[in-house]
Amino acid sequence: MTVPLPTEGTRWRCTLCGNLTRFNVIRSSRVVEFVHLDLAGEPRVEEREVLSESVESVTCRWCGAVDQVELVDRPGAEAEAAAQAAAGDKPGV
Ligand SMILES: [Zn+2]
Fold first, then answer.
1. Which class for 53: exposed (0-12), middle (13-18), buried (19 or more C-beta within 10 A)?
2. Backbone torsions φ then ψ of 56, nearest 5 degrees
3. In a domain, 4, yes or no
4. Does the pTM exceed 0.85?
5. How far is the CA of 19 from the centre of ligand 1 (A)?
């Protein structure tokens, strides 16, 4: 089962308990890191570029349901979309 990914206008919601805010995400990613070591040999990642990533599984922190998430609109997302549509609908532009 694939996990739907949130977008700018949507967020996850647990379909079992309604949790909107806390999830454990298992994500696999391929990254390039700029590792900068100080003179003592302590490494620090100063830049990270994500080449690819995918969410493998999402677990609800409240009820423990695995991959039981759906996408719902973020608060204000509808108003923003309406504002953008209105801005694009200016007559004579
Ligand atoms: Zn839940």
1. exposed
2. -90, -35
3. no
4. no
5. 5
Which residues are found with C-beta within 5 Å of the ion, ligand 1?
A: 14, 16-17, 19, 60, 62-63, 65
Q: Is residue 3 part of a domain?
A: no
6-15, 18-27, 75-84 — which is least confidently predicted? 75-84
**Domain membership flag for residue 73:** yes
Q: How many domains are there within the chain?
A: 1
Does residue 1 fall inside a structural domain?
A: no
Distances (CA, A) of 13 to 5, 19, 41, 57, 60: 11, 6, 43, 14, 9
For residues 43 and 88, is the Cβ–Cβ distance under 8 A? no
